[in-house]
Design goal:
With about 260 residues, the chain is an alpha/beta fold. Helix content is about 40%, strand content about 15%. The protein has a 6-stranded mixed beta sheet with strand order 3-2-1-4-5-6.
Length: about 260
């Protein structure tokens, strides 16, 4: 190889090396893609119907702590990159409600989140209609290009649908709960139903049709113990016992087992 050709090869190799080193440095720099949290979506639904009135206050207080802790990753809880909060049901059947995005709750204290939820999602004698809620969730996920990222849907509800029961089949109303719009949004879609009675929890687990959507329920007898794990007088960041209880009972990682 002559000197001119050797010089060209050496120069080209140097440029390639510089580009490779620069690329490696950028990939390791703060804020690079490798350091960004993986995308995930948390959806919170508040049941505002009259049938849930008995547990409404306790559930909203818990939801305020839950949203605050999740947004900050307290106690090792998974921090979502996207959050939507909306009500379940409305004055009319099939009524669509708006969802508040993560920006509404960032920077708020637990008390401020509680005030917001009480003001915008007050309990009243409305219908508990789950299907419009799930349809709207699917539309939001698609519109914001959040498809394929893990989706956690947490429902604060007694789980009682207002769909009329068929004659001779009181469980038919659970079979009419439609999760089809959620099935292929992501490889990991989990619906968590908090505060149903034990018998209602079982009906959600066994009667609601689904294939890929994961289901997790925590009945009202368990959920109403959450205050036992809250340490009065301690800052919210130091509520380690509560965050652990949430991780073990509410945010439990559910395996995909298909339809029960």
């Amino acid at each position: 190889m002559n000197r001119k050709l050797a010089s060209m090869v050496y120069g080209l190799g140097s440029k390639v090396s510089v580009v490779a080193v620069a690329g490696f440095a950028l990939s390791c720099a703060p804020g690079a893609n490798s350091t960004r949290p993986a995308r995930s979506t948390l959806v919170v639904g508040i049941d505002v119907s009259g049938s849930f009135r008995e547990n409404y206050e306790s559930s909203v207080d818990f939801a305020s702590n839950y949203i605050y802790a999740r947004l900050r990753g307290l106690g090792g809880l998974k921090t979502p990159t996207h959050l939507f909060v909306g009500s379940i049901g409305g004055e009319l059947p099939d009524e669509t409600k708006s969802f508040q995005p993560i920006h509404t709750f960032e920077g708020l204290t637990v008390e401020q989140i509680s005030e917001y939820l009480h003001e915008h999602y007050p309990t009243h004698d409305g219908n508990t209609d789950f299907n419009p809620f799930f349809t709207r969730v699917a539309a939001l996920v698609k519109r914001q290009n959040l498809v394929l990222a893990p989706i956690d849907i947490v429902l604060f509800t007694d789980g009682l649908p207002d769909t009329p029961a068929e004659k001779g089949d009181t469980l038919a109303k659970y079979k009419k709960i439609n999760l089809d719009d959620l099935e292929y949004l992501s490889k990991s879609v989990t619906v968590r139903v908090l505060w149903p009675r034990p018998t209602v929890a079982v009906n959600w687990e066994r009667r609601v049709p689904r294939q890929r959507v994961r289901m997790w329920t925590v009945d009202d007898e368990v959920m109403n113990t959450w205050r036992n794990h809250y340490r009065d007088g301690f800052p919210v960041e130091d509520q380690h016992t509560l965050w652990k209880w949430i991780g073990d009972n509410v945010d439990f990682r559910v395996r995909s087992v298909g339809l029960l």
